[in-house]
Amino acid sequence: MNEELSFEEEMTRLEEIVTTLEKGNLLLEESFNLFKEGIEISKRLEKRLREVEGKITLLINESEEIDFQEEENDV
What we know:
By secondary structure, this protein is an all-alpha fold. The protein has one domain: Orthogonal Bundle (Helix Hairpins). It contains two helices and no strands. The chain has helices spanning 7-23, 28-74. Helix 1 runs antiparallel to helix 2. It starts with 6 loop residues before the first helix and ends with a helix.
């Protein structure tokens, strides 16, 4: 799969995979391939969450620096 899906689309696909695996009516090879796809999706989602978390942390730190500088200028 080369086209990049949105975070939500990947979550939906992961949920579909989990639901299908939970039904347990697949051949071993099919189950393995779905499980493998689910692991790959899970890794991509985790990476995206870490990237967003890093951006949020950066924004918070920048915001705190601005507030601190404004406080210094007020004194």
